[in-house]
Amino acid sequence: xxxxxxxxxQIFGQPAILFGLIALLGLVLQKKSVSEILVGTVKTIIGxxxxxGGVTLLQNSITPLSTWMKAIVGVEGIQPQEFIVMGFVMKxxxxxxxxxxxxxFALNIILARITKHxxxxxxGHLMLHWAAWIVGMVAATNFSPVMVVFVxxxxxxLHYWLSPTIIHYFMRKNDRLTDEWSxxxxxxxxxxxxxxxxxxxxNKDKRCDxxxxxxxxxxxxxxxxxxxxxxxxLWILIGLIAGQKVVQVQAGTQNWIMYLLLLGIQFAxxxxxxxxxxxxLIGELVPAFVGISEKLVPGAIPGLDYPTVFxxxxxxxxxxxIFNLLGAIAATALLIYFKAPIVILxxxxxxxxxxxxxxxxxxxxxGRRATIIITFMTGLLSALGWAFIYPLQGIAAxxxxxxNYTDSASFGAIIAYILSLFR
Length: 423
What we know:
Elements: H1 2-12, H2 15-29, H3 34-73, E1 79-80, H4 82-114, E2 119-121, H5 124-138, H6 145-172, E3 182-183, H7 188-201, H8 223-242, H9 244-251, H10 256-295, E4 301-304, H11 314-337, H12 348-389, E5 401-402, H13 406-409, H14 411-420
Helix pairs in contact: 1-4, 2-3, 2-10, 3-8, 3-10, 4-5, 4-6, 5-6, 6-7, 7-12, 8-10, 11-12, 12-14
């Protein structure tokens, strides 16, 4: 069991190691030279850490907003936060989670091998989050310990395989995206909505990156500069609404307005670093994965992390984030107005990732109109779905957080409800 825990936590749970091992295996299978193997493996790991450096900058700039949103709303509520759910489950069921990942990954490889859909999820940390959520619900049933692991593993494996399979369909159907790789994440439903509904309600020829601005505002055409200015204005607006007293807690000894200004600029800097890391990671990992696809699963396509598509529509990333956040705020207001027993708070960090990802696909299929409408809609509907699944999360039903993706708020809610019938 210690070996299983090690594999689950130190390999699948450490994306840098997992990506490095995948690149290493792919290059070895292609019989590259020692020098090429070393360079490709190390650059893959470096690319991941550069990407995560951007993520850290983004997290540091976004996290305070959640506290201010809570102060603005004025209620105690549930945070959409997968890390809290995962930690809560792992304290008691770490071994079961590890076994579920291994069974799920094995099933994913088998399905990729025997079917025409050659997709393999390799985004280890997201695979771990999904497994923990599933195990938390299955463990609360009256199933035997063996059945808990088996059922969890099957549910994990199906998601590991279906997510990149379905998402790649929409990626390869649009020349503004790519067919070189797919994504593994819990946003099958969000991406499907963005891609199918986007072309109905939007205009793909009027994209977020093509917004016409007057000559005096041409500096907005520089994505990094424009995003820094707009983000700073947004941060200052939210900070003013929350009030100096609330903001000053995070600002410390720094002037609170300057703190808000710099947070917005930090957001733009973080996104720039993230996109640079993506380019390094993709430049090394995808060619190396060819070795695996040629030798182990012919024609295999990797399911990567979702920031890998942000490069295709940087403006849609930011616009999607804003309107997804507005949708989440609207959902919170509705839950409070109707005196719902569970209120989901806007989790700005999650709204960024969901809004950014859905925004890229909505923009590719329906331009900026689709980006605005669909990211708002997913922000609203996801929060309402999370309010439904929170009490159905099994052992994590009272942890104060809910697993946060459109998949958990949609068909995940069906899984949660069915499992609740076996308690």
